[in-house]
Amino acid sequence: MAGRIEQRIATLGITLPTPAVPIANYVPFTISGSLLVVSGQIPLKDGAVAYAGKVGAEVSLDDAKLAARLCFINVLAQVKAATGDLDRVVRVLRLGGFIAAPSSFTQHAAVMNGASDLAVEVFGDVGRHARSTIGVPSLPADAAVEVEGMFEIG
């Protein structure tokens, strides 16, 4: 039977994908004590990058928000793989967002709200987190957005 958090995810119409395998020399997550760190996840859907290109050029702001949301869904898939049960999440501590965009783009925070808003939708108040959002010239596989996460688990 699915736990409380997985039931909430299902209510939101979200199905967690199979966690992506690393594309380089790193692991998808690490756990130390009660700290779970999830490596950056790109907006993969069915094994392909769903949002490619630069935000503010090839990718609209609205699509970039959807990309960030999809990245967080992929983060959740890694959390589930790491813990076996999303109800073990005590708190979302931090999300980091990387936005591929031209140097003139300034709405990085609005893009990252796609991930942050979903964190709060899924976890409620314990989904409120610290955050960094950074503009970059490019990301792996030409992804528009990448999101990493840090969680306290019990």
From TrEMBL:
InterPro entries cross-referenced by the UniProt entry: Endoribo_LPSP/chorism_mut-like, RutC-like_sf
Superkingdom field: Bacteria
One protein family per Pfam: YjgF_endoribonc
SUPFAM superfamilies reported for this sequence: YjgF-like (SSF55298)
Domain Endoribonuclease L-PSP/chorismate mutase-like: 6-143
Protein name per UniProt: RidA family protein
